[in-house]
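Input.
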Amino acid sequence: MKLPNRCSLNSLFLNSLSCILPLCLISNAALAVDCNGLPTWNAGDVYTVGKQVQLNTIKYEAKWWTQGDDPVLSGQWDVWRNMGKCDATTMSSSRSNVSSSLRSSAVLSSKSSQASSIRSVVASSKSSVSCSRSSSSAIVNGGRVAAIPVGIENVNDSPMKATNYRSLLRFVPLNTINIDRFYFGFKLRGANCYDSGLAGYGRGDGGLLSGALVEINQTTGLPATQIASETINACTRYNQAKTESGGANPVLVWANVRATLEAGKMYGFIVSNTHANPQNNFFSFNAPLADTSLAGPHTRNELKATATGAIMSLDPREHIAWSEDNGNSWRYGSLNGQYRSYMNDRDTAHPATRMPQYGFRLTNGSTLGAQPYYAYSADCVACTVAYTNARYTRTFTELGGFTTSGTNVGTLMITNTSTGLQSSCTPAQGYGYRVCKLSNPLTVYQGQTYTVKSTGVVEIMKMDQSQRLQFPQVGTANGEQRAYQPNPATGTNAKDVPNLWAGPLSVYFPLATEN
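Output.
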């Protein structure tokens, strides 16, 4: 934080507070919430999902198990849900605590301590409401730019065993594009054309795969007019995809649907099985899994492009939904498939949500892997991921690693490979997104590459042979997805991506002011 020469630290600290706090109190008066009886957050206490606390006159609710995660600093990862300002009946004591804190902070002798206090109070005000013209892009901007680029742990299927079943993949193109194919996750093992009878992902002749590209009502978020569709025997499409993948079993197949898709607009792709006997002739719709408590906007019918908490570099409005009444109603989150899924296969404490996995073939013959990754229940130990050729300049203030094993992610280090500059931090051990603040923020400029390394264990996202052949630009300097492993871990390939990232903002998506 650059301090004007004419101001002392004390005066800047008090002036900042006098500007910020009244603005918040005035603009947020109508949003006051009841904080009666709520305990004050304590760093040593354990809070489980749904537990509520207050801190600095703000009410917070835990979204998952947490200990030691300061609500003020939870930021875009949403460890705590901001419920709003406490009402007048509970603010009096909080105000006196704040006033006491101000008096104490005003006489601090250490400049670094005062600067830290300034940052803390400013962060608290910004995280409570947008009560000033903040320059903090992490608060002003949600959407893809604030999404973490990782977050999946496994993959699961939805067998299409009935004609009334529907899987909806709602997606938002980054750019206006002309397509003739839509790729999606698919599994058929057990059908006559792939290990007949040996698995339950397919049966008989595979059924009739029906794929429909549809408009989405931008107000309701629900499917509307059909744009294009294709119906084909699932085994026929599987064999075509296997041939194009050089004999590898395909992770994704496609429907031939020709359309012009507009940038930033919601569309849907609906998969069904129209076979006369679907119970004995079916395929499965397949999708990667994220923890429902961590998947934020992707677990609901989110309609705001600027919503926070997105993962996998997805638009917050993108999701998978499931219907068992021919699309008359849709289920989201942990209910978005033919059966419930869990992290680590059977970890019932962590219900899972199926996530979008999709891509396009453009009418010029090239392909675009919008979200091409899936995952197994596999860990990556002491791994490094590189993010190459940044589109935008960013200053990173935090690092993160994702683990579902509860194993320590270790120390995280970011290196700007173009300059050699490094910074590191160590997050608390535990399940989920483990995030730590960098004491020395690091800037990556447009065109530069940086790496994030973990000394511990994180999940890893997969790009198997068929995916690499379908989307050859993924994991390259000019690809749609630019992450790769400079030194692939044992049993992985260079385009498999460890669940490591730097934040709070992506170098690949623009802020509102950069459009």
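The longest strand covers residues 432-444.
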